[in-house]
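Recap for those who missed Tuesday's class. We walked through two folding examples back to back. For each one, the amino acid string is listed first and its predicted structure tokens come directly after. Nothing is annotated here on purpose, so try labeling regions yourself before you check the end of the notes.
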Amino acid sequence: MTKKSMRRRTALTVVALLAVMGVFLVKLVDIQVVNAAELNKKSTNGRSVTQTIAGVRGDIVDANGVTLADSVLRWDFSVSPYVANLEKKSELTRDTNAIGKATGQGGAAVMKIITDSLAGNPKSLYASVVKGVDVTTLNKLNALNIPWLYPTRQQARTYPDGAVAGNLVGFVGSDGKAQAGLELAQNACLSGTNGEQVYQRGADSVAIPGSTVVTKKAKDGGEVVLTIDSDLEWFAQQKLAEAVKQLHGNWGIVTVMEAKTGKLKAVAEYPSVDPNNVGATQADDRGSRAFTSPFEPGSTFKALTAATLLDQKLATPASRVLAPFHFESGQGASLGDAFYHDPWRLTLTGVLMMSSNTGISILGRNLPLKTHYDYLKKFGIGTPTAVDFPAESGGILHPYQEWGDQTKYATLFGQGVSATAIQTVSAYQALANNGVRLPVQLVEGCRQADGTMTEKPSTKGTQVVSKASANTTVNMMESVVTGGELSDKLTIPGYRVAAKTGTAQQSNGEGGYKSTYIVSVTGIAPADNPQYVVSVNIANPTTITTSAAAAPLFKTIMSQVLKAYRVKPSTTPSPNLPAYY
């Protein structure tokens, strides 16, 4: 081979090498420069795993900060069966036994989970081992350092006081979603915002230690602060349960409200749900009848009628009426008192004391229908309260244009109209507060992480009747306690108490009445400086079938309220307005 040929071959080889190197260089530039970001993203995405970081649901607390509902952390554990199966059989047996010991399942059960998953998919990367373990079990499992065992944080809802205020607090489902009560009504405040974290996994699908990066922080939910006093709520629930059982009644409600604020301090019900064990309670007893189940209130509404008559200058406390046992209007209305009696010579005060249906009907016959309707609306009847409790009822108040003659008179003594227990208490709060009805409050607001309180309820009141009309009505109601048939059961030593009793048959929804009835006592104390309104309602008591069934419990609850809140005793005597003429 000539030197010329060798030089030519060498040159061609160099050119070829340069060409090859050029191709590699171009490809290298393409990989490391031009498409580096995209290729890196693809590579990372191929081994990246995104996990949700749950925002913790906020607590529900009472007025004193006592926790009624909270969230606790729990952990679910899963395994990668494919990776686990790469271990030696002895090592896999050792690890599954260790997991089973920590969870209480036993090693055989854990091994079966893995083998069953592999039977369905030989390359299975997921199988659930155990759900909802506490932090103690979490620490035991983490200490095993098993690379194919993964924890996932979850939340569980607990209710430390059980059935105390369970009717109000409500509950969440097994999926953590709000289902009833304030859990549902205040879900926007309580719900947290989920975050995200990403970790990298190796070729064996096992998480690479130290690769976890939080890409979006979770935000915990707010704290719902109630007006309820859980101690008083517990006391009221206990005493109510005792009374309903003793009377062989179906259910009962006790409500306590601050007269000057409209804040509910207790809404006790029996039966009531324990949110920790919802299934143990009948479906009808899982909500709050106090908000959702209106009933014809009966004679407790006579106080509202009396206040209206005073406000319209259609009567005074001394207005006289000859109240017969039976009354017919001449226009179709026919009504009577609870028991036969010779005509009573009563004043308006005496009508309240004796709870005469005929007496209030005769005194109220000149009250225009529209005027009566408008006053009932101002008292809050026919409209749900500001609480906006789930499935809350506004009661039933038909337009006055639809009232027949019977309804005209029946509404004067609390029939032909229905209201919830909360609405009745709210109406009495107006009487106790110089005629100003304030929005009912069950929730103080939503407390944020920085301590600020949002979603505060309105405190703007409505002047229903004049101050004079309200105070005079309260004075007349004192006659029920000082001179009525239940005086001994309602009197609280040291305090002036104003109250009104009621026994009302319940409508069958077809213009008639069922054999069921509700007995009630609603009252105010101290009458000379009203601080609290207490109401007791018991459905279908059988051992005592009149409002006498509710009176002892009213006295017990009101006495406890006055004691617990250290209310000063009355300093002036009752006015003792004339009841007869």
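Example two. Treat it independently of the first, because the proteins are unrelated.
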Amino acid sequence: MQSQDVAPLPAPSPTDPVVDVEQAEAALVEHYPRLVRLAYLVLPPRLGRNRRVLTAHALTQRALPRGRTPAPLLPAQRSGRNADPGYALVRLRVLRTALEADLPPRHRMLPRRAQLPPLLPQVWGLRLFPRSGGADELALDQALSALSAPARAVYVLRGLEQLPEGDVRGVLAEAGVADVAGALRAAGEVPERYALLDSPEFDACSLQARPTDLMRRRQHMKAALAAGAALVACGALLGLPGDAWGPDGAAAPPYARNPAAEAALDPAKLTRVAPAAWQTSARTDFSVWPARGPLTGDEALLRRALAVWARPGETVRVSATPGTPSGGPSGPPQLLYAGEVGNARVVILHDGLRIARYAEPKDGTRGAALDFARVDGAGRAEASAVVLERADGNVRYLTAPWVKEASVRDLAEPGSPERDLAVTGGVTAPLASPAARQSGTCTSWHVLQVTDGTGSRLMTDLGELVPARLTTGRPGSAAEAAGAGALRAWAPYACSLAAMRSAGVRSVNAWEYAGQQLPGAGGTAAWVCTRAETWRGGGERVLAQFRTPGGAQGAVVAQAENVTACGAKDPHVLAGVLWKSEGGDWFLLAAGSRDTESIRTTGGVSGSVRGNLLVLPARAGAQAGLKGTLRDGRTVSGLG
């Protein structure tokens, strides 16, 4: 068995210790959503969500330096954004001002600038706040609220930025934190649920809007509004042509009764598909699912579900996968399910673009939840199941009418037998959900296996309404992850699916793009690329993984988002790793897809090789960059 002492390959260190304004601006614009999320997480929760959102944007926009500025210390292991001194500088400035917001005022009459309401941006008449997540996100938010600002910063730098401990200490010291050790200890008491930091719950760039106190505004501005309305009316009458057309043309006045909008709220006009329609339809997707469940005739429940969809109240927890609009339906949606599941009444609806799930407690409506997932373009495979309920670490699915059998497989144990899963009226029995797992050791990953007239396929719960489809093979010709060979191919990389949670994932493909003979007759290592495709067509996540012979799991050595690498449009990938042999020698290993003609390295390890595999002697902690040339002459860079 080979050593598993593997470290991600860092990029070359910069030679210029000064950051120009242009470089800082480019980093701020490129990583603006991440910087705003960082500021939002570190700011004191007592500000309230609306004030935190606006302050996070203000602090991030003020992070641009006025001139050339000394670059901060960069992490020892650098890749991607962490290799950019411009990003390190603006991140430090955002962190420093976010920490200042939680300090006591320097003088009773002179608060710090970060403690004042931001001058810009400003929003009048609306409260803005991130979309609500689930129970796990709420628990994490409460745990972070109990920490000091430096401790929150530690947690965010560890989880969101994925910095090692030494680099976290360095960043805090540069940000002016006095008690770094105390902040590290306090943050260590919070469970490591770092994947949740990418949740929409903490995304201060994807927001919901609600009105402010309408009664107070009405009382304070009644006379002004009346005068303004009269002035506008007089001006409109003077300025309009004879037939009184305005800028909105033939549109109805605001808040006018609209037949289409009213029909969307009428339970009697819900679309209900016949149970056998899917058998003769040219389409095989959510549009041919019949209405199922014992409460499809409960008009009061359906009316509440439609009303909450159109106008969710402040007590309703609303969540949506990235890129999914949460507005009301444009017309009567399709009813897929209505019934009692566990301790809740659940309604599943489909409007052609989205799946919407409304859930309310059996004993009332307080605590209702509304979840959305984008499903446009779903085919037979993607429309195989929808999540009905998650509770006590388990998940229940509503399966498609064409699903004949359902079972449970442990993706991490390909040799384990599949377990039959009872299905009643399309609803499965509970099975363990990997999406509910706490951070820590991963020894299993349970997935849903469904079988229909075309074969079997695997679906995994990634914390969203629609499970993600698993495939294997070269991009563009990938096949369903069913059968003994596909299960063996996925097993070492099953636990890496945790990095794909809550990202609006449609499918995940695993592709072994290279095998490499290790130095010293150490056997053959596998290079595998896993790529998550999303429903919205953006935000794809790619992981390059390296597994030595006998290793139980692969090691993630490079990752990237919003790239074409390892996908059907660009089935190429290049990644490298520093590897330590059993004899204690270090090597730089790199592998590209089979059409890579040559690879060269720059930085602390220099060399080149013809072909798609590279092995060079190296030192521990060496810093190097990778460039590859394809057979058609194009160049590719190392992933990440």
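Answers for example two:
The two ends are 28 Å apart (CA to CA).
The first strand starts at residue 6 and ends at 8.
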